[in-house]
């Protein structure tokens, strides 16, 4: 694919505002929903359509991965403002051969695609960006081996590795430790209807992160006619059977809506996000409770979420903020009282070690942040300008932009990393900040 955000400079002076914002923002489709539905469409019993899907580096990598496994994916004009719809014809039964898949830095690609590769005859190599090689993968590698699939790696429990599928996976009972990522559970559940005996998956680890993302997986599976029993905590039973072809509209990415909504707290003023679903499995719906805890008022009416802030942020104790944590941490760094974020130890295995990265960057600007065993403590401090490093992490980039809204002279390194899930970020952020000047 062409370089996302081509032309965006390597260092990006974050817009600083001195008056309240007043903006309505439309955000593109959910990464988590787009990539789940793409995987299910590749395994479905006929042609599926995704309306208003995300078009970003992570979704393009998923499209390429599924194409190389044999799915036919075609772009067709749609109604959404952010790009075409997708028609997907599943991987045909006769698909075979060898292929190499680039996972980039996409957790959904590196975790969701290997079980599919086990269902397709032939050898599939997996590798990704330099940072991808330090993301945890051993739970998937071990799970596939327990399921009888050949995996060849160098024993490090990470990319690169190859999966040699025979075309069938028997399935049955399987224990894994998904403490490092909920994506291990989602990956196995998504492919499980195509295992001969289905799957009885049991999580045996100490903690299970990002439960909302697992609930999303269960919900999308049920939506395409798959029988999933999740009545026993930390266990899932997926019945074998067909995955019904579907035609579905992808919701806007509520996690990516976060930095825009948070701008109302930082600058004061009002930000509205259109197309907010009345009910959703996205973890980003938690903004409706997180932002009020930090001092905003929030109203959901007529499909629009409206967030109003005063420019004054109070600290809070917030648990299990999952992929929302970098945005939350940026808000807390601007808070007038201490904050404690808990239940996010597994962020150490995200695009970068997010806990270390947030502490380093907040403190570089004069902040007072500290790592705990499972999160962060952030105390009030007066921040100053400087370079904000992003470590190839899109959510570090948007966190830097948010701090720069209130602190003059913040320069974000590599804003183009936002192309991972939101290529339009620099442009949408400029529009938002211009509303403060108007
Ligand atoms: O399944 C998904 O779509 C995701 C699950 C979560 O992963 P972790 O459980 O590794 O946090 C989340 O952080 C990631 O952004 C997307
Ligand atoms: C953790 C994230 O991504 P990934 O899907 O690559 O795990 C994220 O987007 O915050």
From TrEMBL:
It catalyses: 3-phosphoshikimate + phosphoenolpyruvate = 5-O-(1-carboxyvinyl)-3-phosphoshikimate + phosphate. Gene3D superfamilies: Enolpyruvate transferase domain. Its EC number is 2.5.1.19. Keywords: Amino-acid biosynthesis, Aromatic amino acid biosynthesis, Cytoplasm, Transferase. Pfam families: EPSP_synthase. Phosphoenolpyruvate binds at residues 31, 107, 135, 183, 354, 395, 420. It is found in: Cytoplasm. Residues 19-427 form the Enolpyruvate transferase domain. Its main location: cytoplasm. It comes from the Bacteria. The active site is at residue 323. Pathway: Metabolic intermediate biosynthesis; chorismate biosynthesis; chorismate from D-erythrose 4-phosphate and phosphoenolpyruvate: step 6/7. 3-phosphoshikimate binds at residues 31-32, 36, 181-183, 210, 323, 350. GO terms for molecular function: 3-phosphoshikimate 1-carboxyvinyltransferase activity. HAMAP family: EPSP_synth (MF_00210). Catalyzes the transfer of the enolpyruvyl moiety of phosphoenolpyruvate (PEP) to the 5-hydroxyl of shikimate-3-phosphate (S3P) to produce enolpyruvyl shikimate-3-phosphate and inorganic phosphate. Belongs to the EPSP synthase family. PANTHER family: AROM/DEHYDROQUINATE SYNTHASE, PENTAFUNCTIONAL AROM POLYPEPTIDE. Monomer. This is 3-phosphoshikimate 1-carboxyvinyltransferase. The gene is aroA.
């Amino acid at each position: 694919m062409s370089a996302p955000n081509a032309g965006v400079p390597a260092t990006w002076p974050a817009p600083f505002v001195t008056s309240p914002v007043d903006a309505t923002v439309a955000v593109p489709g959910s990464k988590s929903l787009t990539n789940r539905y793409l995987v299910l469409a590749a395994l479905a019993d006929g042609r599926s359509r995704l309306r208003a899907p995300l078009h970003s580096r992570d979704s393009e990598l998923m499209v390429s991965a599924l194409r190389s496994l044999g799915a036919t994916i075609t772009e067709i004009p749609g109604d959404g403002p952010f790009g075409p719809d997708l028609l997907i014809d599943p991987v045909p039964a006769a698909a075979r051969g060898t292929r190499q898949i680039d996972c980039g830095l996409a957790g959904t690609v590196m975790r969701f695609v290997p079980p599919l590769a086990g269902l397709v005859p032939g050898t599939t190599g997996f590798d990704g960006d330099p940072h991808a090689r330090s993301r945890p993968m051993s739970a998937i590698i071990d799970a596939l081996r327990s399921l009888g699939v050949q995996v060849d790696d160098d024993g490090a429990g990470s990319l690169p590795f190859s999966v040699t599928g025979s075309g069938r996976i028997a399935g049955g009972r399987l224990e894994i430790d998904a403490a490092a990522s909920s994506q291990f559970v989602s990956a196995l559940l998504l492919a499980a209807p195509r295992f001969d005996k289905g799957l009885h998956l049991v999580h045996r680890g100490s903690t299970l992160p990002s439960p909302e993302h697992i609930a999303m997986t269960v919900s999308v599976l049920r939506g395409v006619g798959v029988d999933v029993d999740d009545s026993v905590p930390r266990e899932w039973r997926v019945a074998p059977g067909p995955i019904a072809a579907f035609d579905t509209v992808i919701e806007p990415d509520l996690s990516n809506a976060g930095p825009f909504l948070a701008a109302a707290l930082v600058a004061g003023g009002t930000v509205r996000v259109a197309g907010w679903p009345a009910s959703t499995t996205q973890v980003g719906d938690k903004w409706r409770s997180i932002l009020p805890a930090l001092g905003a008022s929030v109203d959901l009416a007529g499909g629009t979420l409206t967030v109003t802030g005063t420019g004054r942020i109070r600290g809070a104790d917030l648990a299990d903020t999952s992929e929302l944590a970098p945005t939350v941490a940026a808000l807390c760094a601007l808070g007038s009282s201490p904050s404690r974020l808990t239940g996010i130890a597994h962020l150490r295995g995200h695009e970068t070690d997010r806990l270390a990265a947030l502490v380093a960057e907040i403190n570089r600007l004069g902040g007072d942040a500290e790592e705990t065993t499972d999160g962060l403590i952030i105390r009030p401090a007066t921040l100053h300008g400087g370079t904000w490093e992003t470590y190839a992490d899109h959510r570090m980039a948007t966190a830097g932009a948010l701090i720069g809204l209130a602190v003059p002279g913040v320069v974000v390194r590599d804003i183009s990393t936002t192309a991972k899930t939101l290529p339009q970020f620099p442009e949408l952020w400029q529009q938002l900040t211009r509303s403060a000047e108007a």
